[in-house]
Amino acid sequence: MTMIPKPPDRSALEQQQFLKILSREEALARFDAALFPRPIPNEARKLADALGAALAEDVSAPIDVPPFDRSNVDGFAVRSADLSAAGEGAPVRLALNGETIHCGTAPALQVTTGTATPIATGGPLPRGADAVVMVEHTQPSGLDAIDVRRAVSPGQFVSYAGSDIARGEALLRDGTIIGSREIGMLAACGIAEVKVARKLRVAVISTGDELVQPGEALAPAAIYDINGAIVAAAINENGGAAIFLGAIPDDETRLEAAMRRALADADMLVLSGGTSKGAGDLSHRIIGRLGQPGVIAHGVALKPGKPLCLAVCDGKPVVILPGFPTSAMFTFHDMIVPALRKMAGLPPRADAKVSATVPVRIASELGRTEFVMVSLVESEDGLIAYPSGKGSGAITSFAQADGFLRIEALADQMPAGTNAEVTLFTPHVRVPDLVIVGSHCTGLDLVTAALARAGLTVRSIAVGSLGGLAAARRGECDLAPIHLFDDKSETYNAPYLVEGLELVPGWRRMQGIVFRKGDQRFEGLGAKEAVAAAVADPACIMVNRNQGAGTRILIDRLLGGARPEGYWNQPRSHNAVAAAVAQHRADWGMTIAPVAHAANLGFIPFAEEHYDFALVTSRKRRPAVQAFLDALGSDEARTALQRAGFRPASTMRHPSRAT
User: Fold this and answer.
1) 595 backbone dihedrals φ, ψ, rounded to 5°
2) Of 26, 105, 254, 414, which one has the greatest count of Cβ atoms within 10 A?
């Protein structure tokens, strides 16, 4: 008699229900809350070994680069005033000083009226000189003189101290990936060692009886392990160090032992398969025995990617990706990469996006955020995005697609003809999120630090207050930092605004006369008295500021019509002014108090000026602009500004006026 086998217990084979289907946003929030805040593991590396690493802290420039005013050409250091009348038909003869300045040679002689000093490219500009004439524009006149047939302007062929990098400037930000250009910037500042984020050790385990490693023979019903290789590669692409531990069969004892070993040695564990809660899926059950709090989310309203499991075991993240390759990759890049990069001290991933027209209707499941891979083609009307219909198990759909579009959970379709945003799989150079053009101030770095930490890129271009206003009027920037005093109204900045611009209060900074401590020509005097004494002393050389700078307006108010020695020496930053005085190339100038104190120079207060921002009204609602305004008004920024010697406008009861 043939015995009919008893059917297995249905309860043993019945697939369990997911604990709870969470929205993508809720799952991410829970995972983030369970993992952060946490310290970023870091290590010190020599500059030669830092390539490709992520900085673990902000790096500020310890010196000005260049550290002195230097020549950009081979020629002669001259006083531009001596050559104002020079021309082809009217050469000016200059006597040569008895030294030649090479790179690494400190000048010993002053360039006085009617003289010039031979100087090589990169040589430091001597005292008294404010320009360089190219050797090609001169003719020898005997052994000790030259004839110059071309006039030069102040600052011609001169790179001023700090014109490339200013001392105290935010050189590189925490999270910056160090490439060859960053290596060059660090070396230029004399930095030999940096603190970088240690690469996270991420263990990778594939699970399933059916898996065979590439290179081995396939048994019946077996498949090659795709996820192990692709997940490990994705981890390495995003700043981790993947440790692939192979494929583990569906054996609970062996799998638990492998997971415990992985968590003992690694910072993070990523598995694929074992998330759908079938009878053969074990990983999620083991997690509950590996540490607290355990499973954070099991089941997310994503397509593909619903079976995703997120857990944290005694501080270490454990992720179980869906078994299908496309599902695994989408969920890894969308849900796991942000946490991985944050743990590794890296900036958020910057994905390239383009707009494209979807030519066909795409049906979607209501209640699940859906990612649809697309292939892009060019048409006369722009890009066309064709959806891939191969499903979550097809690795070619992921490998061959150009990018993906997203259908929100509340939509049941994307109609044909929709102009959709497509996220590309290939990276591109990211344009700045916020553009600031105008007067530079070290306080600006303190405010924009919050934006950098939020993953926003900021480009700041120093052209002076008037140059910034012009750029803002032309719509070339979001904000223009300005500090311009109006004599008629005796107020700062507001009188200079035009239609389309509005004033955002920034902070107050003390401008004053800077000099070398112990110089009796300045010690004990007020600003006006000190300038009067300097103007009366022919041997007292000043260093000015560039035209268009708010500081230049203050200097000219003090000088009246006087044009003392050094007036045409016009560097573009406060740091360059301080450097000229500290290095004895000038005796006095005007700068802000924090820069003077940082250079250990004497300082005579003159006027507390208003450093504010002209905001382009049409750009006010841009996210990066709003982020800047939020940062500017934050307690963190106000504290940092006060610590640096500035006075935030929001803390003042009454507006300040220059005196």
Assistant:
1) -70, -40
2) 414
Q: How many angstroms separate the CA atoms of 244 and 489, rounded?
A: 71
Which pLDDT tens digit goes with each residue over 253-277?
999 999 999 999 999 999 987 544 4
Structure token digits, residue 181: 């250009």
Distance CA 357, CA 379 (A): 10
CB atoms near residue 185 (< 10 Å)? 18
Q: Label residue 398 by pLDDT band (50, 70, 90).
A: low
**Cα 30 versus chain centre, distance:** 28
Residue-by-residue DSSP string for 259-317: HHHHHHH-SEEEEES--S--TT--HHHHHTTT-SEEEEEE-BSEES-TT-EEEEETTEE
Query: Which residues have C-beta within 8 Å of that of residue 59, sequence separation ≥ 6?
Result: 170, 171, 172, 186, 191, 194
CA separation, residue 528 to residues 125, 563, 604 (Å): 29, 15, 10
**CA gap 568, 542 in Å, rounded:** 9
Instruction: Annotate 579-609 with b (16+ C-beta within 10 A) or e (fewer).
Output: bbbbbebbbbbbbbbbbbebbebbbbebbbb
Record the pTM: 0.62
Identity of the residue numbered 401: A
CA distance linking residue 284 with residue 309, whole number of Å: 7
Gyration radius of the chain's alpha carbons: 33
Residue 282 identity: L
How high does pLDDT run on average in the chain? 87
Q: From CA 83, how far away is CA 78, in angstroms rounded?
A: 8
Question: Which amino acid, one-letter code, is at 646?
Answer: F
Where are the alpha helices (H) located in 346-416, listed in sequence order?
Answer: 395-400
Class of residue 21 by CB neighbours under 10 A (exposed 0-12, middle 13-18, buried 19+): middle
Angle at 628 between CA 161 and CA 612, to 5 degrees: 60
Q: Which two tokens stand for residue 105?
A: 């040679």
Alpha helices in 365-404 (DSSP H): 395-400
Euclidean distance between CA atoms 184 and 621, whole angstroms: 37
3-class DSSP assignment, residue 499: coil
- 98 touches 37 (CB < 8 A): no
The single residue listed with the structure tokens 């090479």 is: 102
**Tens digits of residue pLDDT in 135-193:** 999 999 999 999 999 999 999 999 999 999 999 999 999 888 999 999 999 999 999 99
Cβ atoms within 10 Å, residue 624: 19
Structure-token match 């198990």, residue found: 393
